[in-house]
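In response to the reviewer comment on reproducibility (Comment 2.3), we provide here a single inverse folding case reported in full, input and output, so that an independent group could reproduce the run without further information from us. The structure tokens appear first.
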């Protein structure tokens, strides 16, 4: 069964940290790029970070230097460590998986999302 299951969202004060987790079906997603996206109320979904299967990360400018994406193959989990959080980081964060033959923000599989709220 193809699944992406996120956890770790919550309420945090500005300047604080949260770590999001995304557990994936290991056998199916071998070779896939794993990404994180977010959508704030009234706004379009936006790219946050991605991790190529080979291990190279890539970040949106708005989170560069504050967020870190990583993967633990033993746990079949992708993480998004979020530090120095700002109120504008408030959104529903979703994990996604992209097959090797796709590009850009064209991801085939999505998790259900987890809410992150940053208070000022």
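Designed residues, in position order:
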């Amino acid at each position: 069964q193809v699944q992406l299951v996120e956890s770790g969202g919550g309420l945090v004060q500005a300047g604080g940290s949260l770590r999001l987790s995304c557990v994936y079906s290991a056998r199916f997603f071998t070779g896939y790029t794993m990404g994180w996206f977010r959508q704030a109320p009234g706004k379009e979904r936006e790219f946050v970070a991605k991790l190529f299967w080979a291990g190279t990360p890539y970040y949106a400018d708005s989170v560069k230097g504050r967020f870190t994406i990583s993967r633990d193959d033993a746990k079949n989990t992708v993480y998004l460590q979020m530090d120095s959080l700002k109120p504008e980081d408030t959104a529903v964060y979703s994990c996604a998986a992209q097959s090797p033959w796709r590009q850009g923000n064209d991801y085939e599989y999505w998790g259900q999302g987890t809410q992150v709220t940053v208070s000022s």
